[in-house]
């Protein structure tokens, strides 16, 4: 249901932009694109010891080409599954080790594509709204591992991260009108760990607030129709 709402938002948004330019009697061209690629994901935080992990991403774009402007605009909706390593240990007396987590995200973005070399090379920048799934332990046998820097917080306790976040995206696209390669960096402006602050970890001696910001790099190939 949440993904359907995101798709509806993109459709309504691109329709409103197209109508706005049409009312100005300016020639525009709408294009639909499909894209997919790989991600490198991390959470920048002082609470945990993390290691970035790889994942995949795929999505749909709806763009408005503006030949009379120095930029084009587009709306994108994308899904990704990301991995992340966090240090934890079986017991307080054990040495720590890296355990893997997975997280699924759904993102909607409005991007402005500044033309450096016409449509062949652009700088892409814009805001993004993200729905974030649970942060899940990949190996069930490690769910009760104690997170490094804590005495009562376990790996399974980290699932309840903040579901809605606001990001900023910046990147570069290069290629032709029907095919482009895009490198994009996505940074989370909101605290993705904030919901953990509502939890009561009885007996925990580390009282520092949970705070972290998403950091993701995506390399994708885009085909436009």
Automatic annotation (TrEMBL):
State the UniProt keywords alphabetically. Signal
The residues forming the signal peptide are 1-22
Record's keyword annotation contains Signal: yes
**Designated name of the protein:** PorT family protein
Recorded source organism is Gelidibacter salicanalis
